[in-house]
Specification:
Layout (H helix, E strand, L loop, with lengths): L5 E2 L3 E9 L3 E8 L4 E8 L7 H15 L9 E7 L2 E7 L3 E3 H8 L4 H20 L2 E2 L8 E4 L4 E3 L6 E2 L20 H5 L5 H17 L9 H10 L14 H10 L11 H9 L27 H11 L26 H28 L1 E3 L8 H10 L3 E8 L9 E5 L5 E3 L3 E7 L4 E3 L8 H10 L3 E7 L9 E4 L6 E3 L4 E7 L5 E2 L8 H10 L3 E8 L8 E5 L5 E2 L4 E8 L4 E10 L10 E8 L8 E7 L3 E10 L4 E7 L2 E9 L2
Parallel strand pairs: 13-16, 18-21, 23-26
Antiparallel strand pairs: 1-2, 2-3, 3-4, 4-6, 5-6, 7-9, 8-11, 9-10, 12-15, 14-16, 17-20, 19-21, 22-25, 24-26, 27-30, 28-29, 28-31, 31-32
Amino acid sequence: MNPGNIIGGRYRIIRSLGEGGMANVYLAHDTVLDRDVSVKLLRLDLRDDPSTMRRFHREALSATQLNDPHIVGVYDVGEDNGLQYMVMQYVQGTDLKDYIKQNYPIPLPQVVDIMKQILSAVEAAHAHGIIHRDLKPQNILIDENKNIKITDFGIAVATSQNSLTQTNTLMGSVHYLSPEQARGSVATKQSDIYSLGIILFELLTGSVPFEGETAVAIALKHFREDMPSVRTVNAHIPQALENVVLRSTAKIPAERYGSVREMAVDLSTSLNSDRAEEPRWNSAGDDGKTKVLSAAEISKQLKATEMEDDKEDEPKEESHRSADKKPKKPMDPRLKKGLIGLAIVVVLTIASGLSWWFMFREVVVPDVEGKTAIQAEKVLHKHGLRVGNITRSMNASVAKNHIISTSPEYSTKKRVNGTVDLELSAGVKSMKMGKYVGENGKSIAAYLRGKGFHVETKTVYSDDVAKGKIIKQNKKKGKMVYTDKDTIKLTISAGKEQIKVPNFKDQDITVVQQFANKHHLQLTTQEKESKSVANNHVISQTPTAGQYLTHGDTLTVTLSSTGNNTKTTNIQINIPFDGNGGKTENRVQIYIRDARHNLGMEYQDITINQETTINVPFTLKNGQMGAYRVVRNGRTIMSAVNITA
């Protein structure tokens, strides 16, 4: 599919976003609703494959049933010349896999916030009886504002459609696949919870828990090996947070969380200080089943694994004391007891004092309103406090993903090492568009992005609008715009175009005239007798070569003359603007007659959007009369035949 192609009569392809085993995804523009979208096209070589067709339609059916802010929305499904396509919400950002690679280590409050958004989306799917079955960071998108969107329901299944489960087939990515799915059992909500636990593990450690040379080897590790501890990678991870990983990835589905909601509730308090001493979660037992997958390749791998012998540690040698070393004289028991007692009293006194200082002293909650969650975490840490729960709410006055308020409030006293809950702005759902033409483009773009809108800007040269100011906006003043579907486009002035003046020395006047016409410059000429420069060729120029002019500026050249007594005079021509019929621009062509031009030669071609005055130089011989003609939008509107020097 090439850029510019139209799908479904309205979606213009812009560029490729990625290729998959089932379909290719493109960035496209919806010409009807004037917005960017993602278009997923079924691959040509698979359009006659019934199983692929069923999977493609299943993804469309699953996604269209879901309406959640953290699930990529499906706008349209159709067929165009035999091509199956699906139109989805375009999320500008990256997938969670790349985000982890680029940003690890991720602050723990942000990890919890990301997971809570993911859990919210999966909870919405489960509420509709839809199991995703392929949850992994590659299927989770994150935009520039850290908002999460889950996509790719290609192998999702309704809880009533167990027949879609295929025994002897590994569905989904094996790094995130639950043991029961790999075995070929029916996928359940607990299977998605297992995948969510692996995603949380990767957010905390930067890697997946199990690696292997083959998919079978990795699947075996999910069966046979204990989940590695995230705290060995980062000792600052609270045990309560690790327990969320351990419980969600329990080998036995019944030991996992009963629902995604239950996991979300447990996760939301995992950073609280009152759970600091929580013991490590342990499985109650095993399922008693042989941990072997039914696929022949997995059985072969099992046999190969069982042939490996474990290496035993060599016994360590016992150290012996030297036989000829004389024993020291023992201390008086009463003196020894007295010294030990004194030492204990001193240690306990110091320890109790330090404990009181570290555990019971109070600090003032700093002001973090208006900051991001990461900035707030740093400020709180400096004051001996930690981030607690993070909630989101719509707010028209605070920029999206910035803090609205804290609990407890600013200046309140809080026990050291306590937690402070943060309320983040989710921006606004909608608002009336303002008139931003003439305003500072950078400031307005930041303001609109702070509201939660996707803003696109482009810069163009302008003779009339100052640099950095907005020339045009795609949404009119007073129109209702929505953060979840509207893209606001601003055209910003780059100021007047800077035109670099070339070296015209020894060039014919016609070359100079063409340059002046092309760049809308006023040309003034003067003559000087010269024996070294050809007639009507440039002797000198102002400004000199390498300097810059802008539209409407004057370029002056001195031409060589054979002494035929010509003179140059400048005539001002005032050209009126025609706005009839809603015209916003007029094309104007000027023709002149003098010693170097005739009325059949176009002198200048310009576009005007208001009444415009231009200066035209006429070079005339003694007794010669000059003339000009002005054509606007194809009609002659002005002329003169009596120009004298």
